[in-house]
């Protein structure tokens, strides 16, 4: 059984542990390989992304640890590139692309900070219309691959991080569904992998992964490949809820997920 997590964060951004600690934990867990994906810098103040001056330090240390752990576990050096991040300056082995902000009226609105932040954004720039905010979010997601050059699309419905049980807005609402599916269709044909992300579960925000089952079914209907990622921010969550994510994938008709071998992605059986 292959156990790989390509979405991890270390103390270079908003993670709790060093790169060496993350890799050692992967070995202790019996993982097949581990990927590093620090949050790329952003051109505006942000508490969770790397600072621009730390990006070269992250890349150098990641490559150093990759060499130190050679023969013990494969370590892959990637980046989580936000839609608004500058173009990557280093030859990362893979790129995870995500949309964490929506720009409106010269404001940067966070999509995952809190439920209150979403409601404030809707009130300030959308006349209280959360579906208008969702439409702008998904319109940005539709362009994430072209903007970031990613191979993996991170947390496709990140706007739902604080919308457990549709507590803020109805994910069955026609406007929401149309916006989400339009973004999905825009990304079809771009040779992308969509992650099942358990990060909000490990942080106690959600009890299920994202994307939700409705969107994952839509991905399966479009034959879009998936990978399972924990979006880890500490060494003890590298495989958090992988079994639940695999079960969700199977319930939607998936039998395989994608793995990275350092040169290309390939399909193999789901874990567990």
Quick recap of the structure?
This protein has helices spanning 19-28, 55-68, 115-125, 130-141, 144-148, 174-187, 199-202, 213-221, 242-251, and strands at residues 4-5, 33-39, 75-82, 94-98, 101-104, 107-110, 152-153, 193-197, 226-229, 256-260, 265-269. The protein is α/β, with parallel strands linked by helices and 272 residues long.
Question: Can you lay out the helices and strands and say which pair or pack?
Answer:
Blueprint: E1 4-5, H1 19-28, E2 33-39, H2 55-68, E3 75-82, E4 94-98, E5 101-104, E6 107-110, H3 115-125, H4 130-141, H5 144-148, E7 152-153, H6 174-187, E8 193-197, H7 199-202, H8 213-221, E9 226-229, H9 242-251, E10 256-260, E11 265-269
Parallel strand pairs: 1-2, 2-3, 3-4, 4-7, 7-8, 8-9
Antiparallel strand pairs: 5-6, 10-11
Helix pairs in contact: 4-6
How would you describe what is shown here?
This protein is an alpha/beta fold. The protein has a single domain (4-99, 138-269), classed as TIM Barrel (Alpha-Beta Barrel), CATH 3.20.20. It is built from nine helices and eleven strands. It has helices spanning 19-28, 55-68, 115-125, 130-141, 144-148, 174-187, 199-202, 213-221, 242-251; strands spanning 4-5, 33-39, 75-82, 94-98, 101-104, 107-110, 152-153, 193-197, 226-229, 256-260, 265-269. The chain has a seven-stranded parallel β-sheet with strand order 1-2-3-4-7-8-9. Helix 4 (130-141) packs parallel to helix 6 (174-187). The longest helix has 14 residues, at 55-68. The radius of gyration is 18 Å and the shape is globular. The termini are close together.
